[in-house]
Amino acid sequence: MPLGARYRTGPDGGAGTNFALWAAGAESVVLCLFDAGGRETRLPLTELTHEIWHGFVPGVRPGQRYGYRVHGRWDPWTGARWNAAKLLLDPYARAVDGDFTLPPEVYGHVRDWPDQHVADTVRDDRDSAPYVPKGVVVHDDDDWADDRRPKTPWADTVIYELHVRGFTRLHPDIPPRLRGTYAGLAHPAALGHLRRLGVTAVELLPVHQFAHEDHLLRRGLRNYWGYNSIGYFAPHAAYAASGTAGGQVGEFKQMVRALHGAGIEVILDVVYNHTAEAGELGPTLSLRGVDNRGYYRLAPDARRYADYTGCGNTLHVVRPQVLRLITDSLRYWVTEMGVDGFRFDLAAALARSMHDVDMLSPFLAVIAQDPVLRRVKLIAEPWDVGDGGYQVGAFPPLWAEWNDRYRDAVRDFWRGALPDVRDLGYRLTGSSDLYAWGGRRPYASVNFVTAHDGFTLRDLVSYGHKHNEANGEDNRDGTEDNRSWNCGAEGESDDPDVGALRLRQLRNLLTTLLLSTGVPMLVAGDEMGRTQGGNNNAYCQDNETGWLDWSLLEQPRWRRLTELTSRLLALRHAHPVLRRRAFFAGTPQAPDGLRDLAWFTARGTEMTEADWYAPAATLALYLSGRDIPGRDATGGQVTDDSFLAVLHAGHEPCDVRLPGAPWAAAYELVLDTASEEQAEAPGTVHRAESVLRVPGRTVLLLRVREPSPPGSGGRDQPRMPRS
Q1: 257 beta partners
Q2: Which of 160, 175, 211, 413 is in the most buried spot, having the most CB atoms within 10 Å?
Q3: Cα–Cα separations (whole angstroms), residue 424 to 124, 409, 617, 643, 647
């Protein structure tokens, strides 16, 4: 104990490293040490305790490269795939040196066997050691005493999804040697952009050590996104400016410290549902060779794998040792690497018991009682590809979820595809139909319009169809369900009317997202018009297609879009009514009888049940800032301004009557998406019951001016926030 390679003082007082590997069904385990020239020294681990092979090796110091050879039966028909000719990566390795190139030697079976139907049963006895990365012994005595976690409350959180390499690879103000690295993300130029935007957390696409798939390498491509993990404790070495001999660990920690210093939390996108070893025809890199039957879900035909992920295999999370691997990894990233939370890729696969998704599964139960993990941010991608895998709204308290129903409703509304506004109403106000149970709060809903997977925001309004030809799969990959609208022309267009409409749609989508109740998630570059040329599955585009183009900020139209995003986030931060900690009740919350939420038609009348079912492209919602649930830091009642938001997705202008008494005496314009320059200057005041001509496809945000209190001189006053 603990598992992995841990440098420490031995029984005789001398320094060395303890190696420990769980391999329950193995016949023997050999530790392999490699010097700088690649020469291998083999040391059998003779101690076996509770299915763990272990031993202390004096003199082994940090920086030592190592791997394992595990002996056992070769019997693929029963799921036994031990092959001691294959050097295996320690599942607990803290750092990895080298890259996965996947030549035939790294496969446990004969990859090029003429009859591929039985190729996985023919053992390959060639040594893989020269061709695979090695683990690196790392000494970690950092107590994080100089770090201060932001600890941003969920309701105040704004997530910014980014790729460590892609975010900084083209940044002109970051030194070239740091671009595309953890150190690059920690650079003041990168931090400055995040702070100016006003985001509170970065969600990093996978940074666990990952491998590239064979089919990509054969086409001259690489896995860019990183959803192909092989080392759950190791920062991906290719993102380190400090080399791969262990320096990547310290560099990652310094990046976390820098982000914390800027008030920004670090959330990791983690892939514990499958590994890079794929199906039975995949390579033997780690877990398959350690104990295939112990780590993976096998099909009734034990040669095959149960695949709930679409990636060839699924980790068998019901087994104690697999649960231990995952939870040990999660705690390591929190306690020793400083991160603040996790987004779980295909989380429904982790919640499966024997077959079905089970919200009382061992994985969810272990997380719920863990004193470390239950205190960090936990986000589920609440689906997998298996039967019954779609579980949006079903995860238990403590968990937030990616809400794809929010994405679909907002996209459909702004492209004119919603039959009515019922679904939109739920999505704008925290999706209470999905999350108002078990004490869950509106921040259980992570609202997003785009994510790494799919069109960028600019492409969403520029393409009606995907254009993934560069991926080399004849445009068959990527979803067909884009819910996009190209505004009348496919791809880039010189038509000024098309360009103006697209910019307005971008402003509408961003404004809708950032004014909605719940936790908003932006994708890096959407605020500045990043495009992937219509590619909606750029997972293998480690090039200008996938990287953020910072030169966009030199163009006035994209710079203004970035400024709008920052302005919206500042507005959200200033007003607690826009980031509520409890669902709207729809009932009076104050003695004057006003409800905390009210819905209006374009006629200025309150929505009736018939209005909710009638075809409509216009919706207005009144958000009351009076007596918001919750208390401020001194125990006082939280109050704020009240707002009226008008969303009009129709093509033609629409006359909207502003609600009169008792809702307001007047309304002050805060935001109008009709024009970059604003059709009316912010601050313009409109009397209650006046009629506004709202241009087609526009969002208006108006601050409520309430009747003046006695002795105020007759001026209508906004209510200022107290929180």
Answers
A1: none
A2: 211
A3: 57, 6, 11, 18, 10
Q: What is the pLDDT of residues 456-503, one digit of tens each?
A: 999 999 999 999 999 999 999 999 999 999 999 999 999 999 999 999
Question: Would you state the pLDDT for residue 717?
Answer: 57
Domains 4-137 and 577-705 belong to one CATH topology = yes
Locate tokens 């009606």: which residue? 464
Question: What's the whole-number average pLDDT of the chain?
Answer: 93
Paired sense of beta strands 618-623 and 643-648, if any: antiparallel
* Per-residue pLDDT at 581: 93
pLDDT value at residue 355: 80
Is residue 84 a contact partner of residue 123, using CB atoms and an 8 Å limit? Answer: no
- For residues 406 and 393, what is the distance between their CA atoms, to the nearest angstrom? 12
Q: What is the DSSP string of 293-355?
A: HHHB-B-SSTTSB--SSSSS--B-TTSHHHHHHHHHHHHHHHHTT---EEEETTHHHHTBSSS
What is the rounded distance in angstroms from the CA atom of residue 506 to the CA atom of residue 523? 13
Q: What architecture (CATH level 2) is domain 4-137? A: Sandwich (2.60)
Q: Does domain 577-705 have CATH number 1.10.3730.10?
A: no
Instruction: Enter the pTM of the model.
Output: 0.95
User: What is the DSSP annotation of 143-159?
Assistant: --TT-------GGG--E
Structure tokens at 712: 């105020």
Q: What are the residue boundaries of the structural domains of the chain, listed by start? A: 4-137, 577-705
Residues with active-site annotation: 345, 381
Measured CA to CA in angstroms, residue 137 lies from 4, 63, 180 at distances of 9, 5, 25
In this structure, what are the phi and psi dihedrals at residue 360, rounded to the nearest 5 degrees? -110, 25
CA distance 215 to 202: 31
| Omega of the bond leading into 629 within 30 degrees of 0 (cis) | no
